[in-house]
Amino acid sequence: MTSDAPLTSARVDRVLPAPPHEVFDAWVDEAALAEFICPAPGTAQVSIDPRVGGRLRIVMAFPDRRSEIEGEYISIDRPHRLSFSWRSSGIPGESVVTVTFAPHGQGETLMRIVHSRLPPARVGRFVDGWGSVGDQLAATLRRAHSIVQSPTSRRSRMTGVTRIDPTEVSARPQVTEGPALTRTASLFEPGAGLTAGVWEAEPFSEHIPSYPCDEVCVLIEGTIHLRLKDGSEHAFGPGEAFAIAQGTECTWRQDDRVRKFYVIRER
Q1: Residue 194 pLDDT more than 60?
Q2: Which domain holds residue 256?
Q3: Model-level pTM?
Q4: In CATH, what number is assigned to the domain containing residue 193?
């Protein structure tokens, strides 16, 4: 007779004070991830390659111990879902962490962390740990948004004139978004679900069953080809602009690097 119990999952939900794309981006930025991924009072060193198959390594240091976690990214669907494997000396075999991000309230995110394939005896400890991670991420975002709401911030509510610098996107790390390597610099967030910034991506083609937001784009560099459900095709080059409605089915293709200004509204 065996005493082995079936593996189970730990689940933690948190409502966070930022829209899904901001919360998602914090998980795929090394510096941001290091701020919240280790439960208090520990600290973390993080090395990540945020693309499917890319590796991640997290070294957590606590006053009485040290823990090393390694894994690989299983799925990356910005800004909806992130999944990666998790191997540590404290858990036999390999477990899986899945984080989902859903719009909630006014400019907030319902984040759910599910850590699956865990021994039942360890679930309580992981619920506490991921709960601390969620609380720390909420505090990090709250601090960032307190700067956003400052009267001198370029991301404050709109007053007067705000300069948007398209070169800022070049300094951002590339992350995998759908089939492409992209950089996004969110430069202005006046609230009410609106975000403006600059987006840059290498060549790719993707069928989009339902466009995730309302968006207005102005092309700075490259050409975008859109094929709609009715078979019509549209091309937009530097200096041209277009708007696309949330829910639109289309195929997006770009044969060279594209850089665009965007204004999106998330509903």
Answers
A1: yes
A2: 166-265
A3: 0.56
A4: 2.60.120.10
